[in-house]
Write a structure and sequence with these properties.
Blueprint (H helix, E strand, L loop, with lengths): L2 E7 L2 E7 L4 H7 L24 E7 L18 H9 L1 E3 L1 E3 L5 H10 L3 H4 L5 E2 L34 H14 L5 H6 L4 E6 L13 E2 L24 H12 L4 E6 L11 H9 L5 H26 L6 E7 L22 H4 L3 E4 L7 E2 L4 E3 L3 H8 L14 H6 L7 E7 L2 E2 L9 E8 L2 E6 L19 E4 L15 H14 L20
Parallel strand pairs: 3-9, 3-10, 4-12, 5-13, 6-15, 7-8, 7-9
Antiparallel strand pairs: 1-2, 4-11, 10-11, 14-16, 16-17, 17-18
Helix pairs in contact: 8-9
């Protein structure tokens, strides 16, 4: 059999065959197992092992933690995700360790922290390259594809970039992935939406929409980015085939939504304008959130129509935060790319009707680092010893309090300074423990986005997140013992040796040597 690469164009589907044998096809032919018959001994009364659950992974893209009905937003409507939160266990105080698309998705794919998997930023090896105008003077800000601030050369323009991109993907390939490990237990899997690490078939998916680097447009999803915005047929067709062949399936649904461009259906844009949203930029973002929610509802309804809801684990979160500017396109400070709550906090939902006890987990902490081991446990797959996250399945089923008492995070520059040394781009590290959050600042290379990471406060920042969820009041000077204890926990979590930081409060502004 051949791998089917799906994409939708208008109301029709097109199928492009790749010359790669699929795991699902081999399973159907009995070639991987050697015998398509029962695995229990003949002539005994022992039943076959129960079929593992299907798994659907819903991943939003650039979505604030506040922007859901179930999180109490006064205007945004997300009825389908509200329904999922009601029937599942959801953690309002969920977190992603790194608030940037590519590192966050890498963690969701392999269950490792950014310093472990090494994919610290979206693009490697950026170097300022003045773009010459016809008169010979350097241009200002580039507006075309592949251009950043100050006319920097974009990804397609340099062979050096492509070599570093290939090396970064090679480094990512050192580790097992969730679809690959599930595949060892008989799962078929489908990639759709955002995917940065080259061809997804290389990393355990049996089918995928994305062609991936080094193919043209393969930086972060290419054809896969059509999902959701241009319909759901590729995902539905995969589910239909997997169900017909009685294979447990894994769906990676990571659409380019509500990510820019904010181009929602006009009916939704007008809906939010009618609610009194003055800013068109904000109204479009709100409409994009609801449009994304609609696609999630379509996927969940399709699973339900196949009679698979009770046999399917659904996990939901967003890759990182977003605070929409009211007066311009783009995101505000202290959201995407930042170590602040607006970037890293993300509600997390686990649903498995009849298995997972529903309800809000209140102030209990959860990290996206826990998702891979939890899903491996649900699928009956051994959990690799190198995974740092917790298997939450026992407490999700019992309703007992989570054992997680702290979450860690790290922020690196958007542009990877050294593909073999994560510390080179390290900007911040943080820990949340109960009500406390300690944020430490580091002197790593920042690349193009220095305007987002001014790092004017180099001293430790301590916040009481319960009393001050927006992190407006740094109280490090008032609690030196808490600062010292949490700073030690951060260093014990991942000993950093090459970067400078300040771990004690001083009355004078902090200065790096």
């Amino acid at each position: 059999m051949k791998v089917k690469k799906w994409f939708q164009k208008g109301s029709s589907r097109a199928i492009q065959d790749c010359q790669i044998v699929t795991i699902s096809g081999l399973l159907a032919m009995g070639l991987l197992l050697g015998n398509a018959g029962p695995t229990h001994a003949a002539g005994t009364d022992a039943p076959p092992p129960p079929k593992p659950p299907n798994i659907v992974f819903l991943i939003s893209d650039d979505h604030a933690w506040t922007d859901y009905g179930f999180m109490g937003h006064p205007q945004i409507e997300t009825p389908n995700l509200d329904r999922l939160a009601t029937r599942g266990a959801f953690f309002p105080r969920g977190y992603v360790p790194t608030a940037l698309c590519r590192p966050a998705l890498a963690t969701l794919a392999n269950g490792l922290y950014t310093f472990q998997h090494g994919v610290t930023g979206n693009d490697p090896g950026y170097t300022p390259v003045p773009q010459k105008a016809p008169d010979g003077n350097a241009k200002g800000k580039g507006k075309g594809k592949g251009k950043g601030k100050a006319g920097m050369a974009g990804p397609p323009q340099t062979p050096g970039y492509r070599a570093l991109q290939a090396k970064l993907i090679e480094n990512f390939g050192r580790f097992a992935t969730l679809p690959g490990l599930l595949g060892e237990k008989g799962y078929v899997s489908f990639q759709s939406g955002k995917w940065w690490e080259g061809n997804p078939l290389r990393f355990g998916f049996t089918e995928g929409m994305t062609r991936g680097f080094p193919q043209p447009g393969g930086r972060h999803g290419d054809d896969g980015l059509k999902i959701g915005r241009e319909g759901m047929a590729p995902v539905f067709d995969f589910i239909d085939r997997a169900a017909a062949e009685k294979n447990p399936f894994f769906v990676w649904y990571a659409p380019f939504m509500p990510h820019t461009p904010h181009t929602p259906p006009d009916r939704l844009f007008q809906k939010y304008k009618a609610k009194g949203i003055e800013s068109d930029f904000v109204a479009r973002y709100y409409a994009m959130v609801e449009w994304f929610d609609e696609t999630c509802g379509q996927l969940l309804d399709h699973v339900d129509q196949k009679g698979l809801t009770n046999d399917t684990v659904v996990v939901y979160l967003a890759d990182n935060g977003w605070i929409q500017k009211a007066d311009a396109p783009g995101f505000a400070a202290r959201s995407k790319q930042s170590p602040n709550e607006g970037g890293t906090r993300q509600p997390i939902i686990f649903s498995w009707p009849g298995k997972i006890k529903p309800g809000s987990r209140g102030e209990q902490l959860c990290s996206s680092i826990d998702i891979v081991p939890t899903l491996l446990a649900a699928g009956g797959s051994p959990i690799p010893a190198n995974l740092p996250g917790m298997n939450l399945l026992p407490i999700l089923e019992s309703g007992a309090p989570s054992p997680r008492k702290e979450v860690f995070g790290e922020t690196y520059a958007h542009d990877v300074a050294d593909v073999d040394d994560p510390e080179a781009s390290l900007l911040y590290r943080w820990i949340v423990e109960g009500k406390w959050k300690l944020l430490l600042t580091y002197d790593g290379k920042v690349g193009r986005y220095a305007h987002l990471h001014r790092r004017e406060e180099k001293r430790p920042q301590l916040f009481d997140l319960i009393a001050d969820p927006k992190e407006d009041h740094n109280i490090a000077a008032e609690h030196p013992d808490v600062v010292a204890r949490l700073a030690k926990r951060i260093q014990d979590w991942n000993p950093v040796t090459k970067r400078q930081t300040i771990t004690e409060w001083t009355d004078q502004p902090g200065v790096w040597k």
